């Protein structure tokens, strides 16, 4: 079976971003990212297809050599029956053993965290973009905000100059 090119994968209607953790890049310095599968129930997938999820307070932990995604809110599926899922249950992340061992080693060495950045569909399967991150101090956050504002002002000024508005 031939692999799909990146353009074909992006064009597929099964590929959509469901939720992003917008505060993660502000609160953490991202060192490395991983793509992980996630073990879900049927009603969770249906709720995600409706575009409902929140990664606001989500984090990942390592328990007994497995990685678990905690505090992700996937609301109950409105057409579900008594078999509906609990909205904030712990969900197992699916990674290769070598990736799990690498993450465990890095987490134990330094004070690093596993933070989910986004939740999305890829070829009909739900994936999580997981980041190995270090928490930022308050002064680091201020520096990154100042840097972003300066870059924005430079871009704005260059746009003015190119239009002849000095």
TrEMBL record:
Keyword Cytoplasm: yes
Location(s) in or outside the cell: Cytoplasm
GO molecular function terms listed in the Swiss-Prot or TrEMBL record: RNA binding
Keywords: Cytoplasm, RNA-binding
Biased composition regions of type Basic and acidic residues, renumbered to the chain: 141-160
Segments for region (Disordered): 141-166
Biological-process GO terms, alphabetical: trans-translation; trans-translation-dependent protein tagging
InterPro entries: SmpB, SsrA-bd_prot, SsrA-bd_prot_CS
Pfam families: SmpB
Main location: cytoplasm
Gene Ontology CC: cytosol
The protein's role, per its UniProt record: Required for rescue of stalled ribosomes mediated by trans-translation. Binds to transfer-messenger RNA (tmRNA), required for stable association of tmRNA with ribosomes. tmRNA and SmpB together mimic tRNA shape, replacing the anticodon stem-loop with SmpB. tmRNA is encoded by the ssrA gene; the 2 termini fold to resemble tRNA(Ala) and it encodes a 'tag peptide', a short internal open reading frame. During trans-translation Ala-aminoacylated tmRNA acts like a tRNA, entering the A-site of stalled ribosomes, displacing the stalled mRNA.
Family that this chain belongs to: Belongs to the SmpB family.
HAMAP family: SmpB
Name by which UniProt lists this protein: SsrA-binding protein
Organism: Mycolicibacterium madagascariense
Gene from which this protein is expressed: smpB
């Amino acid at each position: 079976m031939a692999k799909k090119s990146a353009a074909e994968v992006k064009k597929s209607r099964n590929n959509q971003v469901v939720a992003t953790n917008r505060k993660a890049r502000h609160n953490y310095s991202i060192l490395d990212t991983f793509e992980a599968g996630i073990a879900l129930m049927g009603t969770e997938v249906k709720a995600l297809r409706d575009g409902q999820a929140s990664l606001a307070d989500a984090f990942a932990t390592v328990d007994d050599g497995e990685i678990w995604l905690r505090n992700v809110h996937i609301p109950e599926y409105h057409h579900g029956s008594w078999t509906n899922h609990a909205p904030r249950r712990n969900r197992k992340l699916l990674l290769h053993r070598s990736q799990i061992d690498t993450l465990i080693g890095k987490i134990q060495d330094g004070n690093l965290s596993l933070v989910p950045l986004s939740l999305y569909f890829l070829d009909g399967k739900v994936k999580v973009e997981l980041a190995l991150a270090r928490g930022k101090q308050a002064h680091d956050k201020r520096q990154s905000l100042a840097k972003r504002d300066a870059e924005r002002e430079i871009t704005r000024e260059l746009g003015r100059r190119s239009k002849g508005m000095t």
